[in-house]
Specification:
Blueprint (H helix, E strand, L loop, with lengths): L29 H17 L5 E2 L11 E5 L2 E11 L8 H13 L2 E12 L2 H5 L9 E4 L4 E2 L12 H4 L3
Parallel strand pairs: 3-4
Antiparallel strand pairs: 1-2, 2-3, 4-5, 4-6
Length: about 160
Amino acid sequence: MENNTRENIPESIWADGVPENIEDKDRISPEELHGMAIDYVMKKVILPKGFKVEQGFPRRDFPNIVMKRDGVIYMVVVFPSVFPSYATPNDDFRLKVVENAKKFDAVALYAPVGYKSIDEERAKAQLTLKGDVFQTMFPGFIVLNDQEHQDFNVKPEDLFRP
């Protein structure tokens, strides 16, 4: 009997370490990374948990996802981060998102999605290369509030834990 434990593990097209000559076309753009994060939240979290995605979503504009479950509407903003950085909404943006959600009697949610290359050298260099394999982390949704400041209580080491 064969050992197929590695059968479903994808492999990077890149050799170990940081490539010497990286062209712009080899890098995942911020827009592509954002699309990957939205896709991840949709396929791995929202749909499996029984949320109904409203028509026209997901989209690149904010909110990225509007979903509903048990009569409650949720407006989700998705922020991708690349190890070891961690992106959170600034107060002005967060307050606009919350204000918009209130117009629709909806709950505003922040979805932090972290990416880290499985290659330690590329991870340290914060490289996101097309064809690479990434560890994807999602600690859960965070409800956005309308207070002057909001502490997200998520540290990069929490988002990028092994």
